[in-house]
Each structure stands twice: as C-alpha cells, then as structure tokens.
Amino acid sequence: MAAAWDDAEGCHHVGVLELTAPGGADATAPAPLRIRHALQVPTRAHAVLPGPNATLVAVARRPGAWMLRWRPGSPAATARWHWSEADRSFNGHVQADGQHALVCTETDAADGAGLLVRRDAQTLAVLQEWPTGGTDPHAVLALPEGGWLVANGGVPTRPESGRVKGDRSTMDSSLVRLDAQGAPQGAWRLADKRLSLRHLARHGNGLVGVALQAEHDAAEDRRDAPLIALWDGQHLRVGERAPLQGYAGDIVARPAGFMLSATRAGRVAQFDLQGRWVAHHPLAKVCAVAPLDKLGWIAGGSEHAMAHGRDGIDNSVASFARAGGLRIDNHWACYDPPAPRPGNPKVAA
Asked: Does residue 102 contact residue 86 with C-beta atoms inside 8 Å?
C-alpha cells in the first residue's frame, strides 16, 4: 500500500506498507503490517497517488506547504520536492492528468478562493490553474468523458489561522464540474448547508458517491447526519441518515455500492446504490479505504488494517494486519512495486 503514516515517536512518513501473510504456530493471529520503504516528511501528508514507473506523489494535509514525487526504494535525496507558492496552499488531494500532468486542489491565500491547479508531473511546476467556484476545495475526480469533478468543502478558514474553522453558519459546500479546459459546467448543493462535501468515488455505472462531514453545532445533529450523497450527473441527493457520528473520512466504490470509513464511529460502513446503509464492521479510528482487486477493499485503522477479498462486508473473508506503532493517515492506495533488480535488494530509504 502506498500510504502516509506517523510512527510511534510522532514523526511523519510516506512510502510503502506491506501486508504479509500470517505465519508461525498461530495462523489465525494478525499478520504484521511492515514498512517496505519510507521517506520522512516535515508535516502530515494527506493523499498519496501511485504514478508511472512505480513512483508516488504525496501532498501535505491542508493548509499544506509541500508536495513531492518519489520512487520508493530510491535514496531520499532523489525525491522531487515542491514548496507551495507564497500565495497558495495545498489542500491535500491530487489526481493524474494523463502521463505528463497532475491536478491538485489548492487555495488562494489572498481571498480564500478554491483553485484546481494543473502541474507538470515531473517538475511539479504550475502549468494552468482554474477557479473551482467555491472555497475549501478538497477531493478531485477525473470524469471519463473528460473534465473534473471537485468537492468544495465550503468550511470557512483563514490563512493565518490554519485549520481553525470560522463561522460555519456561512458554509457553502458544493460539487462543481469543470471541463478539460477548466470552464464551469455546473454546480450542485445540498439543502443542509452544514454538510461538507469532501471525498469522491465513481461507480462503474457512472454514479458518484460523495463522502460527507457534518459541521452542525449540536452533537446530536452531527451524530445522526448522513455520511453519503449521490450524484448521477444531473442531480445531487443525500443518502440515508445513520448513527455514525456524521464523519466519513474516505470512500470507495464497489459493485454493490460504496464503502465509507466512519472515522469517529470506528466503523467501515457499506451503503447500497440507493444510498441506504446496509452493513458495518468495527475498526477503531478507521480512515483510509482503498479498492482491492476487482471486488475487494482494504481499510486502515489505528491498530489494524482490514482486507476483504470480495464486495460488501463478510467477517468470514476478512483478514487483519497489525499496524503496531504505526498510525495510518487519511488515505492510501494499492501500489505495484517494480521487479527487484539482480543484486539490488529491497531497502527502505
């Protein structure tokens, strides 16, 4: 898994974690989750993106000051770092735009406006930038017909106060579609203005699931708030309410629907294609969720990782890997390592 994590001393890293097979006398014991390659970074990372030639791109958590491109297993000195421009900050997410470019969500420090920024995949230099039509842009999703879908979280913050939230009664969260040249093609909002649209996953049938984070003042309103909204290209509608503490940290699409990490509830929650909550599995402080093969999924929590080889939730097919002193961060992705060269053993940089 290409991932970001903190170690037992609180130092921040990005790199590759390896799930190993159970061994020893007790084959039912959790298998260890091992560090295969690691690169220490100055602050917490948010999203990681596996790229061509076994590289990965990582972006700092918002308001972020850095992003990097690195080939795990190569020396740390070979990492390409890019520090944010003085009037910009990174918002934690990046997507590939073909083989030669990336797009990431950023914020203009002068006025707080959201930007979708296209960068060279090798140098990470800015090529183009477009307004997202909102504030606090977070996840971005490439659309198969071309263009982009951006989740504007809409939570008010100021550059000088970092992650401290402002007056949430002024929230304006939106889902915005941009064409390949950055021109706006539509915007959608939910009736409940305190639901922040954060993360995106596209189902094979074209339906997009949107992970929500509730920003209501009252604890009871947050507790029972919906975790998912659904966008069909024309309409955005909220899913079923669920007592899962109103905070979805990540989302992936699977054939039967969507898997979400209900981080504050400590659950991996399954929703069907109508947005109905159908099942859940406990996993303490779960956040990172990623697709696994064609049907399965894998989630990382504070003490364990949980992998399922098929769609949905079924305890009989779950396997666990102990995370030990690691605290897996918000997102991860399956990573295909390069074939080892003769005489060049695997080492962590």
From this structure: no
Q: Do 297 and 291 touch, CB atoms closer than 8 A?
A: yes
pLDDT at 115 over 90: yes
Residue whose token pair is 């920003």: 215
202 contacts: CB under 8 Å, gap ≥ 6 = 141, 143, 144, 208, 209, 253
Instruction: Tell me how far apart the alpha carbons of residues 226 and 260 are, in angstroms, rounded to a whole number.
Output: 11
What value, to the nearest 5°, has the Cα angle with vertex 107 and ends 83 and 153?
Answer: 130
Most distant CA atoms of the chain, gap in Å: 61
> pTM (2 decimals)?
0.91
How far, in whole angstroms, is CA 110 from its chain's centroid?
Answer: 26
Q: What is the per-residue pLDDT across 273-282, written as a single tens digit (0 to 9) for each?
A: 999 999 999 9
Tell me 246's DSSP state: T
- The CA distance from 47 to 59, in Å, is 6
Q: Which helix (H) or strand (E) holds 58?
A: strand 56-60
Give the span between the Cα atoms of 193 and 337, in whole angstroms: 43
Alpha carbons 69 and 121: distance in angstroms, whole number: 8
Instruction: Report which secondary-structure segment, H or E, holds 91.
Output: strand 88-97
CA 155 to the chain's CA centroid: 18
